[in-house]
Design a protein that fits this description.
The complex is a heterotrimer of chains A (about 425), B (about 325) and C (about 250). Chain A is mainly α. Helices cover about 70% and strands about 5% of the residues of chain A. In chain A, helix 3 runs antiparallel to helix 11 (about 230-255) and helix 12 crosses helix 13 (about 285-300). Chain B has 2 domains: about 15-215, no CATH class; about 215-315, no CATH class. Chain B has 12 helices and 2 strands, in the order ααααββαααααααα. A two-stranded antiparallel ribbon of chain B has the order 1-2. In chain B, a hairpin with a 2-residue loop joins strand 1 (about 130-135) and strand 2. Chain B starts with a helix and ends in an 11-residue tail after the last helix. In chain C, the strands form 2 sheets. A 6-stranded mixed β-sheet of chain C has the order 6-7-8-3-9-10, sandwiched between helices. Chain C has helices at about 45-50, 75-80, 95-105, 125-135, 150-165, 180-195, 205-215, 230-235, 240-250, and strands at about 5-15, 20-30, 35, 60-65, 65-70, 80-85, 170-175, 200-205, 215-220, 225-230. Chain C is built from 9 helices and 10 strands. Classes of the chains: A mainly alpha (about 425), B mainly alpha (about 325), C alpha/beta (about 250). The interface between A and B is large, with 48 and 52 residues. The complex binds adenosine-5'-triphosphate (ATP) and magnesium ion. Magnesium ion (MG) binds next to helix 1 of chain C. The site of magnesium ion has 3 residues of chain C, from helix 1.
Chain lengths: ~425, ~325, ~250
């Protein structure tokens, strides 16, 4: 990350002066209002489902970022705590229904959270002994251990099929059955907001600050009286707690908990979302979670190999924008403050056009290749962006190659235009061009 | 019993040596460059698929050479144009880069060869039983795999102890700043080490392909075990990786043949577990059934007893 | 009589086959300003690493205010009132200057691992952070990431973090290294002021700093203390001249 970006972040996040009440709570009030109004704007079944998934993903990603962004711990197995949250939530719902206990659905995520906390404490005690690469590998090993055990211990985990529960059978308050998706959406929205506020609050506590210190320099932390391992452990526990809440909400949403909750895909997705959103910023994972859920849906509709594009996008971000979307946005804050943002528009446009041409060319070739390899039985005829073509003809390949190659060259040259425009804005702090 | 012992030991050593073929490259790369290559198992998978494809075109023996060379070249390209650029962002982005790469390689393999196993056969010259112990025929191909991996082990050992670069590489295992002594061509050496490590993994892939299942999920299945090996052995320790490879190889092969459960053990003492409970399976599951998770249990155990790994000295 | 603030008894430290500290006995009285001098590679930083818990001695024992702290981890030693700075700047690069200093006094301020109190409401701690920053002339840079400070500012921050918690035994490892004359003078003045009423052990190559600041001086050569005494005694010691000052004074 460039110093400039660091500067921007630190400058905003850590003023010693207490903020005014409006600045402090305003964001959350707006967020609450938006969450409340969303179902009236996007009321379709699909939209409600998507927004529910986004809410869950936001909690999960934020919990992940307690590790990655705040404490500098890279975990490949965060889904373990999500999974336990989900399983314990379903078991709790079943037990409550079976015994006719007077417990309403909205408190079930608490059960998930406690489950996440418990198992994070258990496994965290072992894994936070190490940091860095070793921690990452241990998290992976633990995830495999739990994932495989879930298939062996069928009594508790229900084998391949998993276990199910009916969310509508619990004690009702105000006559909410939580049958309709919109009610589930509101349940998720409330928990999402609550968790986000709590997680943000934690970043502004002594422990939250020491997490950052451990991320930056664990050795020095020891010499100001803190045990870096204990800091990592507590961060891990908190992270597990919120992951458990997210898992429970997922279980409520789908009314099922199965071993996929623990899966490598789940752990990988939360890592992708958090990183692409921007781990260095509190709101980064929120962006990432929303984007990833949206992309997953949109891309999987468009193409059969969306995961490939997803992987390529991730690699590109690691290489060229390691501070994520949030980093790119925050980079423009000095421009915004200086009211010079609009002056970047022409330059960005100059860069965007060849970029899109390049991507379209690359996608065309990938899709034709995919068609030839996987859908050979259907013959060479296919469509790319509604344009019919033959995957085995020379023409489309040439076009693809030209677009990708030419686009790349022009895009590469456009960097200079962008850098020049950036310098012309005259915002001293922002000198230095793009990341 | 003796038969089982001998066959399991052979198989265990074989699996262990295969693991070490991969773990050694992984450790070399990690020690010199500080990156744990998450995509290492993906290079192993590429090796298997390249081996399969080239075998089809020109036969197994050319494939045994060409496959690893191609994968090594891919590895070198990845280092040169990918990792090297990410390096300045720090170790986490580097690890994430290789993570993304593993993801992409799996997708590409699926696209080209599909999701189901491909028919990668043992070459005909080696398709006969090498010897018979009691009633078990031990296939010649497995013996061949064993020989190849031991051969490479010896070659690697020779290079590391006899050549100048080898000595520097070895020194850098314990003293990371020794890398600077490579002189002005550090980047080139990095590229070569990365390529060589990938090629080693690919050799493991080509020879394991016909014996195991060549399928697009093989990297995802093997990767975690590989990382367990390097953590249990101690990150950055070549001898640790060797011991851990054999340990896990033997552990898993032996476990598969043990059909005993906790319930059986307790039954010997005249104790039977109570009525069915949700955790009933804990009692009834046999050692053979938990064989796949044994490496991970070992990992946890080692971490509790010796957090830096069996022979590890480095903290991170 | 009061126990010495720091006492080393027969402390030895080897790295592999090489013994870097070869039996050091040293007592620093409470309230004393003690300088450790010696040629490069003599083992001064290693001595600090031993006392502050970063390294465990191979043999011998270390006492802090009369209590044995040999082999304790750094955080436990720090909690008993010992704080140190590093020769190579060792700060929290991505955090702001303000946060850096505040990290230095959270534990000392009784916050421990609390995750239920907002740091914004810790008025006492924030006031103290502000005072320390003002002392070190870093107030204007409070919101800047520590990683982008100038070298001299980073050195100042290094010491600010060290003394922020109010530890009563302070170890400074070459605090003025790389500073200009002017900066050094200011730093010395500051160190003199902050070490008022505390025990200070300082490693320094700049002799004007050493003789201007120290009540007592120990000379460490090849892992052994060859002389220990008042500045006057050290100046006159033939042994010191031969072993150390001689090389520099020529
Ligand atoms: N962790 C270590 N492992 C091996 N050798 C070490 C280690 N730390 C220090 N040494 C060696 O111990 C000796 C003393 O080093 P030390 O840093 O204590 O010297 P110093 O007196 O502080 O020197 P300087 O004035 O240059 O700071 C040196 O020869 C150094 O190479
Ligand atoms: Mg020193």
């Amino acid at each position: 990350m460039t110093d400039r970006v660091v500067n921007a972040v630190v400058g905003s996040a850590s003023r010693g002066v207490p903020m005014s009440a409006l600045a402090r709570y305003g964001v959350w009030v707006v967020a609450a209002a938006v969450l409340a109004v969303l179902p009236f704007v996007f009321g379709s079944g699909l939209a409600l489902t998507v927004m529910s998934l986004m809410g869950i993903a936001v909690i999960f990603s934020l919990s992940y970022n307690i590790l990655l962004g705040q404490t500098g711990l890279l975990s490949f197995g965060h889904a373990v705590y999500y999974g336990f949250g989900g399983y314990l939530a379903v078991h709790a719902m079943k037990a409550i229904v079976a015994n006719g206990l007077p417990v309403p659905l909205p408190v079930i995520p608490l059960v998930g959270g406690l489950a996440g906390l418990f198992f994070a404490a258990l496994f965290g005690w072992v894994s936070t002994k190490r940091s860095g690469t070793a921690f990452a590998m241990i998290s992976l090993g633990l995830a495999e251990l739990i994932g495989s055990s879930a298939l062996i211990l069928r009594g508790f985990f229900g084998g391949e099929e998993g276990i199910t529960a009916d969310r509508t059978k619990l004690l009702r308050i105000l006559d909410w059955s939580f049958g309709p998706q919109v009610q589930v959406y509101y349940l998720i929205a409330v928990w999402c907001l609550l968790c986000a506020i709590l997680m943000y609050a934690v970043t502004r506590t002594p422990l939250g600050r020491m997490c950052n210190a451990v991320r930056d320099n664990p050795e020095r932390v020891q010499f100001v009286g803190y045990d870096p391992r204990m800091v990592r452990f507590l961060a891990f526990c908190l992270s597990g707690l919120f992951a458990g809440v997210a898992g429970a909400l997922a279980a409520i949403n789908f009314e099922i908990a199965n071993s996929a909750l623990f899966g490598a895909v789940q752990s990988g997705t939360v890592l992708l979302a958090t990183f692409m959103g921007g781990a260095g910023f509190f709101f980064g994972p929120v962006l990432g979670a929303v984007l990833v859920v949206y992309l997953q849906l949109m891309l999987s509709d468009l193409t059969g190999i969306w995961q490939l594009y997803f992987g390529l996008l991730f690699i590109a971000m690691v290489m060229f924008a390691p501070s994520g979307l949030a980093g790119l946005i925050m980079m423009h804050r000095p421009l915004w403050r200086a009211r010079a943002l609009h002056r970047m528009v022409p330059a960005y446009f100059v860069a965007l056009v060849p970029l899109l041409v390049m991507l379209a060319g690359a996608a065309l070739m990938i899709e034709m290749f995919h068609h030839l390899m996987v859908k050979a039985v259907e013959g060479p005829a296919m469509k790319f962006m509604y344009i019919p073509l033959h995957a085995n003809a020379v023409g489309p390949w040439l076009v693809g190659l030209l677009m990708a190659g030419g686009g790349f060259l022009l895009f590469h040259r456009s960097f200079r235009v962008v850098a020049a425009a950036w310098n012309r804005t005259g915002v001293a702090d922002a000198a230095g061009g793009r990341p | 019993m003796l038969e089982l012992l001998i066959v399991s030991t052979l198989n265990g050593v074989l699996f262990g040596m295969l693991l070490f073929l991969m773990a050694s490259g992984l450790t070399l790369i990690f020690s010199m460059m500080g990156v744990l290559n998450f995509a290492h198992a993906s290079f192993y998978m590429l090796g298997a698929f390249f081996g399969f494809q080239i075998s089809r075109w020109v036969g197994f023996w050319p494939a045994l050479v060409v496959g690893p060379v191609l994968v090594g070249a891919i590895g070198a390209v990845v280092e040169r144009f990918g990792l090297r650029n990410v390096h300045r962002h720090g170790h986490v982005p580097e690890l994430l880069f290789t993570f993304g790469l593993a993801f992409v390689i799996e997708e590409v393999v699926q696209m080209i060869w599909g999701k189901s196993p491909v028919d990668f056969r043992v070459p005909e010259v080696l398709d006969f039983p090498a010897f018979t112990i009691f009633a078990t025929n031990y296939p010649a191909y497995k013996l061949f795999m064993l020989l190849i991996s031991i051969g490479i082990f010896v070659a690697l050992f020779a290079v590391l102890t006899k050549t100048r670069i080898g000595l520097i590489v070895q020194a850098s295992l314990t003293h990371p700043n020794m890398v600077a002594h490579l002189g002005h061509n550090v980047p080139l050496v990095f590229m070569l080490v990365f390529g060589l490590g990938s090629a080693l993994a690919a050799i493991a892939g080509v020879i394991a392909g016909p014996a195991l299942v060549t399928q697009s999920n093989m990297a995802a299945l093997l990767g975690p075990i590989l990382f367990v090996v390097v953590v249990v052995g101690g990150l950055g320790s070549l001898s640790g990786a060797f011991v851990a490879s054999l340990l896990i190889g033997l552990l898993q092969t032996f476990a598969v043949s043990v059909n005993v459960s906790l319930a059986d053990v307790f039954a010997v003492f005249g104790f039977t577990p109570g009525p069915d409970s949700m955790l009933d399976d804990l009692w009834r599951v046999t050692v053979a059934q938990i064989a796949p998770i044994l490496p991970y249990l070992l990992l946890v155990l080692v971490l509790i007893l010796k957090p830096s790994g069996l022979m590890g000295t480095r903290e991170t | 009589m009061n126990a010495p603030a720091i006492e080393l008894r027969g402390v030895r430290k080897s790295f592999g086959a090489t013994e870097v500290i070869r039996g050091v006995d040293l007592a620093v009285a409470a309230g004393e300003r003690h300088a450790v001098i010696g040629p490069n590679g003599a083992g001064k930083s290693t001595l600090f690493n031993l006392v502050s818990g970063l390294l465990a001695p191979s043999s011998g024992s270390i006492l802090l205010k009369g209590d044995d702290v040999t082999g304790l981890p750094p955080q436990l030693i720090n909690r008993r009132g010992l704080s140190r700075s590093f020769q190579v700047t060792n700060i929290f690069h991505r955090m702001s200057v303000w946060e850096n200093v505040r990290c230095g006094l959270l534990w000392a301020g009784g916050q421990r691992y609390s995750f239920w109190r907002s740091v914004d409401n810790l008025s006492e701690i924030n006031a103290r952070t502000e005072r320390v920053l003002a002392d070190f002339n870093l107030l204007e840079r409070r919101d800047v990431a520590a990683g982008v400070l100038t070298y001299a500012e980073q050195r100042a921050l290094e010491i600010a973090i060290t003394i922020a918690g109010g530890a009563d035994v302070i170890l400074l490892d070459e605090p003025t290294a790389g500073m200009s004359r002017h900066e050094t003078d200011r730093a010395v003045e500051l160190i003199r002021r902050i070490s008022e009423g505390r025990t200070l052990i300082i490693v320094e190559h700049d002799m004007s700093v050493v003789f201007g600041l120290a009540d007592r001086i120990s000379v460490l050569v090849y892992g052994e203390i060859v002389a220990s005494g008042t500045p006057q005694e050290i100046r006159n010691s033939a042994r010191v001249k031969e072993a150390y000052l001689g090389q520099e004074a020529h």
